């Protein structure tokens, strides 16, 4: 099998193979990477996270199936339909987020136009290589997310005989739903790219935010319908008509032979949507590669600033007046940073949407409980460390050198400006969101007390995030693959869950007791002050750096490794 695949690959044109490898490694902007970047390892770690998620869901479902086995055909159908919708919903969410994170990757950018246009490479070859690279990334995500459940669950639900039809139908539906979603994004983005590029760059930010919001809202707010009667309710008719996940759920059951006749129209709507999405994506890509590829050279990818009066913080130090607007404009105007920041903020907003959904579905008066407090802790942590990770991506080499040659202040002042930026862009938005979600909480003063605790925890999180961070945001190259993301993600999740549960139970106990709450606030403030003092002391002797490069590579220049290889 492997030899056949290699033989097939060798038959492809050399230009296609070279471009495919380059585009596959350009999930992250190459100008943002250190020269020692290990992109394949970086992608493999994310695939490992999805694979672990699939294994956890599979094992959890297996134990649930053993503890509460379905006893009637109606129970079995309810369990099967819940499983189908869960994994179709999750797959469409992941593919949608990948489509937004890889925004513009399929379309020609300024680098492609400048480098590839003079070469004897046909636009169709460039297009084919980009589409193949994007499909490879999406395929890795689909397989990693469903490899465990996509085989074991069909066997548990329908047995070996039923799984012969269940498994192909299931995987085809996942591919079809992903193709529809990705094709729809390409269609919208491609026809928007036909506008003058300066208008497209301004519109692109809005389209990305709308796409993120739509995917998250659909995932967290669409209910699972597990009976035929629930699909036939007049109250659900409008929702089903305009919600694509239900169409592909019906398409799967049509292929599996388990779709009631009353729901056939949903499956045919899914087939039609898939066809329109593929046709629209093809037309949009053809138009961009034949009409707009050379026009991209005329304008840069960094969105030009609009004319108007500038803004600055009135009472902030001069360095903060420079770094805060620079950071904000980097996130808003640069598509790479906008997408990276939106990826982490998507986790924050997904938690907020789940909390909002819980409030809508709860008829009882809301009180502060661990179920409310733990998600707010998660929002602060993901917001701070997500933005801290985005800080490592440089805007451009120009910005790198501008800040490098204008370093006139001591390092602690740069660390203070970074601290203020993190608080303004990571903690304050979360406090606003939690404040809005706390509106129905009774008594109201406890919600205010929790906001104060959350603000102090945000300060502590910022100090922890700034350990060893001696650089200006967005001015240092990024070295992906230098840490084990899987270990940090799952290990941090386990540790954080244990700490969050304990902290939530403790906070519930002190809220409403003035002296206990005051002691808690003073204690947390003392921890934040101690961490600030430690970071300030370390920053006094630190030197700002602008290149992520392992120290041993600078010293040895890899001479030893080259000698050993020979």
Could you explain the architecture of this structure?
The protein has 22 helices and no strands. With 566 residues, the chain is mainly α. Helix 7 (149-192) packs across helix 11 (244-256) and helix 15 (370-390) packs parallel to helix 18 (444-465). The longest helix is centred in the first third of the chain and has 44 residues, at 149-192. It is globular, with a radius of gyration of 26 Å.
Instruction: Specify the biggest β-sheet.
Output: none
- What pattern of helices and strands is seen along the backbone? HHHHHHHHHHHHHHHHHHHHHH
- Termini gap: 32 Å
- The value of Rg in angstroms is 26 Å
Question: What is the strand tally?
Answer: 0
Low-confidence sequence ranges: 30-36, 553-566
Bin the helical content. Answer: over 70%
Structural class: mainly alpha
Contiguous helical run count: 22
Hey, roughly how much beta strand do the residues contain?
A: under 5%
| Shape descriptor | globular
Mean pLDDT over the full residue set: 76
Task: Annotate the secondary structure layout.
Blueprint: H1 2-11, H2 14-24, H3 39-67, H4 73-101, H5 110-116, H6 123-146, H7 149-192, H8 197-221, H9 228-232, H10 234-242, H11 244-256, H12 264-292, H13 318-333, H14 335-361, H15 370-390, H16 397-405, H17 411-437, H18 444-465, H19 485-510, H20 514-540, H21 551-556, H22 559-565
Helix pairs in contact: 2-6, 3-6, 3-7, 3-19, 4-6, 4-7, 4-8, 4-11, 6-7, 7-11, 7-12, 8-14, 11-12, 13-14, 13-17, 14-15, 14-17, 15-17, 15-18, 15-19, 17-18, 17-20, 18-20
């Amino acid at each position: 099998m492997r030899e056949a695949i290699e033989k097939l690959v060798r038959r492809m044109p050399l230009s296609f193979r070279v471009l495919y490898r380059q585009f596959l490694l350009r999930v992250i902007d190459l100008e943002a990477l250190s020269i020692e970047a290990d992109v394949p390892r970086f992608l493999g770690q994310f695939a490992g996270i999805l694979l672990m998620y699939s294994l956890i869901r599979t094992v959890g479902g297996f134990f649930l199936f053993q503890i509460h086995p379905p006893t009637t055909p109606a129970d079995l159908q309810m369990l099967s339909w819940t499983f189908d919708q869960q994994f179709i919903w999750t797959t469409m969410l992941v593919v949608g987020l990948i489509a937004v994170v890889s925004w513009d990757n399929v379309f020609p950018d300024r680098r492609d136009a400048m480098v590839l246009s003079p070469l004897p490479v046909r636009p169709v070859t460039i297009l084919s290589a980009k589409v193949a690279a994007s499909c490879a990334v999406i395929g890795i995500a689909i397989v990693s997310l469903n490899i465990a459940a996509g085989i074991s669950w069909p066997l548990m639900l329908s047995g070996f005989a039923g799984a012969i039809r269940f498994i192909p139908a299931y995987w085809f539906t996942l591919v079809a739903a992903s193709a529809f979603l990705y094709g729809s994004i390409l269609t919208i983005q491609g026809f928007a790219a036909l506008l003058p590029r300066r208008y497209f760059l301004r519109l692109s930010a809005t389209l990305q935010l709308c796409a993120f919001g739509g995917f998250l809202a659909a995932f967290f707010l669409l209910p699972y319908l597990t009976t035929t009667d629930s699909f036939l309710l007049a109250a659900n008719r409008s929702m089903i008509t305009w919600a694509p996940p239900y169409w592909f759920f019906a398409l799967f059951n049509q292929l599996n032979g388990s779709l009631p006749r009353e729901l056939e129209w949903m499956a045919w709507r899914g087939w039609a949507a898939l066809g329109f999405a593929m046709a629209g994506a093809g037309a949009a890509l053809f138009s961009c590669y034949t009409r707009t590829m050379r026009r991209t050279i005329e304008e840069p990818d960094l969105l030009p600033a609009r004319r108007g009066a500038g803004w600055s913080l009135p009472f902030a130090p001069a360095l903060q007046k420079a770094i805060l607007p620079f950071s904000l404009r980097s996130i808003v105007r640069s598509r790479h940073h906008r997408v990276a920041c939106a990826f982490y903020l998507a986790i924050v907003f997904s938690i907020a949407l789940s909390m909002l959904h819980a409030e809508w579905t709860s008829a009882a008066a809301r009180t502060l409980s661990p179920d409310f407090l733990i998600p707010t802790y998660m929002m602060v942590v993901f917001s701070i460390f997500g933005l801290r990770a985005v800080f490592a991506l440089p805007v451009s080499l120009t910005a790198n050198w501008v800040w490098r040659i204008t370093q006139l202040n001591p390092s602690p002042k740069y660390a203070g400006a970074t601290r203020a930026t993190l608080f303004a862009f990571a903690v304050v938005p979360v406090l606003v969101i939690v404040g809005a979600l706390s509106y129905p909480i009774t008594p109201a003063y406890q919600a205010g007390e929790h906001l104060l605790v959350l603000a102090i925890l945000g300060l502590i999180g910022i100090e922890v995030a700034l350990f060893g961070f001696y650089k200006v945001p967005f001015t240092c190259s990024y070295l992906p693959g230098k840490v084990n993301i899987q270990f940090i993600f799952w290990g941090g999740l386990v540790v954080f869950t244990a700490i969050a549960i304990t902290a939530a139970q403790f906070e519930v106990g002190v809220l409403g007791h003035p002296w206990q709450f005051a002691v808690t606030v003073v204690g947390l403030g003392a921890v934040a002050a101690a961490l600030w003092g430690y970071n300030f002391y370390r920053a006094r002797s630190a030197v700002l750096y602008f290149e992520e490069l392992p120290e041993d590579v600078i010293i040895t220049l890899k001479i030893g490794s080259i000698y050993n290889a020979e």
